[in-house]
## 1
Amino acid sequence: MQVINTLDKILEQYSSIPFVQNQLRIYFEKNIAARKSLEVYQAQNWDYKIDHLTIRTYDVEKAAEAYIELGWQYDELIEYKSEGWWAKTYRKENFPTMFIDQSYPDAPKDKLIVKKWVDKFSDQEFHHIAVRVPEDQEIEKAIELIKAKDTNFPGTITGSKGSQLRQIFSQAELIDGAHYSVLELVERNADSKTGKLYLGFINDQADSLMKDSTL
């Protein structure tokens, strides 16, 4: 297995898609936790696999156009009306999934997490990237190693041990006192029904992480 650990190597994979490559470069420049995770994966000789990339926007359909033109195709709708937001996912073979979310226009003010973020930072940068934990490791190990580099994970792990999807956010970076980007760690396990690695998303867990993005 090819192990990819340095930022240059990560960005090199996107040389054919300069738009995404530039977004990733900006993300890593501004997110300390992401850079620390690269150091950990390098030290452990783990493959640094980006699971998905998240865009916050005012308009999912409009924001998706740029990625559809680059070959991503619609896959899944995630709705959480009671919490004020929804999302669509888009997939492209051999590339991370795009997770694009927005607030409902009629959501209560205290549920406008996505809109408030876009008001401050626009929709031209990734809110977070999700890095996959190696299949022979548990998410707790990756958290422990990254924490040792003075990076905090103030929320809780979503998903119980051994479940098909487990996730956690790092503490948000702050810009001008506002919560900016986070790093997500993802542990994916086999689906009990299919026996294949679970690659989807779970609404309740996504909403729990949405709240954790402001910690």
## 2
Amino acid sequence: MRGPEKLLKSENNWETHMGGWFAGERVVYRGQDLHVDLKDMSWMELYVYGITDRRFDERQLKILNSIWTNTSYPEPRIWNNRVAALAGTARSTATLSLGAAVSVSEASIYGHRPNIRAIDFFWRAKRLLDQGHNLHAVVRGEIDKFRGIFGYGRPITRIDERIPHLMCLVEELGCAQGYFLKLAFEVEKILIEDRLRLHMNITGLDAALTADMGFSAREHHLFMTTCFLAGMPPCFIDAAEKDEGSLFPLHCGRIAYHGVAQRDWSR
């Protein structure tokens, strides 16, 4: 159905299985009563239930929670945290600060887009391996096509300090035998042996762990959308409590300018 008939069908009417608010009565959340059936859920449990329509056990929820806590750095030099801090130094509101900082987390190189690309690679690799392809050939094909694999390599340092801590929890919980987790480390081994020096970063590990829980690329992306959030309020507060406009000021002499020389302006 095309044209105005399709719009008329939705006028004052929205068909959904996700839920709804019955004013003064109840709230339905994916077919469950939010205040009765889901009242004992933790926030993390509710969040991933809303994304996936699936329940996760206690071990999985601990891993998902750790993915977030391990990625929330209160460091104002980090690109998205800097936005939160700039909002504080400009005396903006907390809501605008966090909203803007979360928005710019959708970065192409080191933000949420690599999260999609990383888990997408793992799912594509599995399909190729199931068809009988060799993993080394799959890795080389990805490198030749995209000049890299999202989830491997880091611009500042080859070592990702988050991985040992997250893996310690994963092993402690007995969840280190997942298909995609093993695949992630096999890919890393190939990249290192081929002298590409691309060690796995936290994006690759996070994608492997959620893929082992059955997350699709879109589900993983939605889950990771707020993974930096807990590091942002400290940056906003810190900047808001200091002198206005004092966040990382630059002296004019530090700017490497090679344009037109200083000149006089006439009316």
